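Bit of a strange request maybe. I'm writing a small parser for structure token strings and I need a real example to test against, not something I typed by hand. Could someone generate the tokens for this chain?
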Amino acid sequence: MKLSVVSTLYSSAPFLEEFLQRISSVCRKLTEDYEIVLVNDGSPDNSLELAVALQTRHPQITVLDLSRNFGHHPAIMAGVDYAMGDLIFLIDSDLEDAPELLISFHEHMQATQCDVVFGKTAQRNGGWLSRHAGLGFYKVFNALSGTPIPENPCTVRLMTRNYVNAVKQVRDKNLFLVGTFTWAGFRQEAFTIKKHVRNEKSSYSLRRMVALSINAVTSFSARPLHFAFYTGALFAALSMLAALYLIAHKILNPTAIQMGYTSIILSIFFVGGLIIFFLGVIGIYISRIFNETKDRPLYLVKNVIVPNRERHD
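Reply from user aminoacidic:
Good idea to test on real output. This should exercise your parser:
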């Protein structure tokens, strides 16, 4: 197998037919020996039925039907695990990234002899808040993590078999793919692309984006725990100095009026808030350890559907 295309399905029905037509046309320009692996990540629409129906026109399609929605990143890994190609092209099926990028990525890979070509946008799409929040995330992540990642990376990427085999050895249960892809090393080249902007609302809600950000930082950095320790040590030292100052002040000025209850209450609330916050940080890391020790698989495949037959796993 020369080439594998891996894509996930989640509310993809409106785009799927055009996506398959375009990606198949592009693949044939490179080789006739290719496969298209579609991973149904518990899609709420009829993406699965449509993908199976389109196998009559595109016999290269294999559909992995996951047992439920496991999330975008585990679904991607399911497709990558199944792909057999010497080259693996990863792309979302929503047409935000043009399937024709495969040609450009392949040419760039051949010219640079790199292991990975990944898409990167010059500027994030969306409103002011979304753009700046995303930019802020990458800056915070890179400041905290020992694995700096490029800003504004995209899902779309072309990977060699050697690189994919290395990535498949990483079986983190708290999966942050951009970090994993970068951490794996090898020679990786960024390719600036322009994403197609759709009017549909993104499936990534604010809650999911915040959860992904927390998972990303805690998966690749222990520095928040170090920050909690040093902050606690700093407050303990400042409290000691303040106590010594008040004792000395009282000895030298016995008639001095002491501060009232308001400042004391505010101090208690402030320090109490810090304690609760840092306990929460520690709790997040403990929950990550809990997830890892359970050693559950990233995903479960319900069916593997290939043209003219269906295999139940």
